[in-house]
Records
---
Amino acid sequence: MGEIFSPGKLMLTSEYFAIDGALVLAVPTRLGQEFSFEEKNDEKSLIFWEAYHQNKLWLKAVIDYKNWQILETNIISSAEFILKTLKNVQNLSETKFKDNFTYHLTTNLQFPADYGLGSSSTLMNNLAEWAQVNPFYLNTISLGGSGYDIAVAKEKSAVLYQSVPEIKYEKVDFNPSFKNELIFIHLNQKQDSREGINFYKSKKKSQKLVDEFSNLTRNILVCNELENFSELMLIHEQKISNFLEIPAVKAKFFADCPVFVKSLGAWGGDFVMSSKFDGFKDYFWGKDFTTIFEWSDLINL
């Protein structure tokens, strides 16, 4: 029996524009996904897959990987995704699913699935580490996306990430002096990232605009004052709002909020970032947004 862990992630800058090569700043979360594995040499060529959400069984599947058939499952669509992904693992790996072994593979997502902290990317990174394959390539052929979340899961660190013209990233020290003033609020729903990305892709964009987000990311990384950081966040939100031609989250839900509110990731769901002010908990609770994390509760840096 072996175990692997990958942290979740939060994308702080360049949402959507990451696809076109804008520089991204992303950070790891305390919560992530565990992956445990056991292999038996019994000549049966079976995979017993169990996926737990916060220690409660969510998905169960038995897969014949000689013929790539689902023999048993409780959620067919999710089992089909797992089958496709594991088939990709077989094609990429030199050792896994080759020798008629039986595999008992178990995952446990430590955060609610609607948090948007990377249930799929942590899975891809865990599988890639286990099978000793390239996690970015496995992610690309199984899921798609820019891959920044794989870099965070792999490095377990804050990263600066760029996907175009080729994937490159570096671990960075993101430890703002005002971090204990930052808060993260869940919007009580999970945004469909693919839907948001498709909408973004349908709109024409310029390299100049992509470069503007890269510059914002660089400035945010080295920012030392909350006031300046807040200003940069507001500029970032307004640029994306203008481009997408949809209201920013502050205009939509928090127009009377006295501080900045910034979307993190696909607009319309998951988490937003803000900063503390007098009565901030009562303010957000009064709008039925009751899941509020401080930096030290959520971010693993």
---
Amino acid sequence: MENLHDRRKVYEKSQLIESEIKQNPIEQFRDWFLDANESPMISEANAMAVSTVEEDGCPRTRMVLLKAYTHEGFIFYTNYNSRKGKAIENNHKACLHFFWPNLERQIIIKADLEKVAENLSDGYFHSRPKGSQLGAVVSPQSQEIPNREFLEDKLKELEKEYENTEVPRPAHWGGYLARPYEIEFWQGRPNRLHDRIIYELEDLDWKISRLAP
């Protein structure tokens, strides 16, 4: 057994104080996201973990890319027939998680998910590189396939088919809007006395509280 007891890091880069935070968590997210996006040490600030609950009651987590955020919530795109899509169909609640270790920050978001309007999915789909569009058509995401060649052969066929024409967005591929009802901001601090500020939606207002680390 490898002993990891002595692997420790001192957190001391910043602080999260009530007098300095935004009253709206989306605005607070924007400030932190801009910091992460501008950091040369973070290659994909929009990478986030999305956890859903499957039929056996066990959560399942995977990394996806945040593609937009508005005052309504957070948008990402996927295959609706994937394991995450089926999980969301059965249980619309999910947890989003951002972790930016170089800033010693993380954000945990509990949200209700809903499909975005089809025109938004169309617009984003056709903004992607053609290879990515074809990949979305080729892959029966989360389904068992015989081998790697199955995907590569199908891709070659579709590259010829759509060589001089637009790739239509598959009906089973599109976006989700995660409407948050709880957002926690975590800032690492010395002596493990980290800052945890949580926003909880009550009716139409956000209640702000501090949690013990």
